[in-house]
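Tokens in:
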């Protein structure tokens, strides 16, 4: 997934998801079935997804303190109820721009994944009716492969004009 400017996302040393400084570098995630499948209405299930780190199959993109991190999957007997919701997102096609997608947090409905304008890290923010917000919350799928068990997504979310 990349923006019009070609920016992807990478991980910092704390496994926080941040905007890539290099348009050619991006972290690869696998788009998998929604971790909170049982907590989603039937109408949203086809659009609910989770993102697994391609290099570490027990690690998922997850909201922690409103920021996006890649965190380990917990032992299911000890899973905090929050992990399933924090690692699940509703995929919205043509949300702000035709041909682009937006990710809405399942835990914080009405909040979308966006890029912090100053720091470049990804976080969930309430929808703001501005061009800056729509640009920062929009992305395209760069490559989408449904031939295997997982749907493979390359890169990450990035602001259009950043």
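Residues out:
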């Amino acid at each position: 997934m990349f923006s019009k400017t070609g920016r992807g996302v990478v991980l910092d040393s704390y496994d926080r998801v941040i905007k890539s400084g290099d348009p050619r570098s991006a972290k690869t995630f696998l788009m998998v079935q929604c971790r909170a499948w049982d907590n989603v209405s039937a109408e949203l299930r086809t659009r609910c997804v989770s993102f697994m780190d391609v290099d570490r199959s027990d690690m998922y993109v997850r909201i922690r303190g409103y920021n996006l991190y890649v965190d380990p999957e917990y032992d299911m007997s000890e899973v905090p109820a929050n992990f399933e919701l924090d690692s699940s997102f509703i995929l919205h096609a043509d949300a702000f721009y035709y041909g682009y997608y937006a990710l809405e947090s399942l835990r914080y409905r009405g909040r979308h994944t966006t890029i912090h304008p100053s720091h470049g890290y990804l976080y969930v923010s309430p929808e703001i009716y501005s061009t800056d917000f729509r640009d920062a919350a929009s992305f395209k799928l760069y490559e989408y492969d449904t031939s295997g068990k997982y749907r493979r997504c390359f890169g990450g979310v990035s602001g259009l004009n950043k």
